[in-house]
Write a structure and sequence with these properties.
Layout lengths: L1 H9 L2 H14 L8 E8 L6 E7 L4 H7 L7
Antiparallel strand pairs: 1-2
Length: about 70
Amino acid sequence: SNKKRLFSQLQNDDSVKKVFGELSKRYSNRKGGYCRVLKAGFSNRDDAPMAVIELVDRNIEAKKMDKPKKIQN
């Protein structure tokens, strides 16, 4: 099944559930173009090209939640 195939790549059950739950609903009306790939320069260690892969129509609030809180002294 598709879930087993995706799990073989992601190796994370929570990620598979998110793809088939939240993300499948978000992109159900979109015919294509689910992500954008932005070039991010080259790695310092081996000079390999790097990229940032971003889902379009992403939840802006989720990015704010991921930021670590500053520790006050």
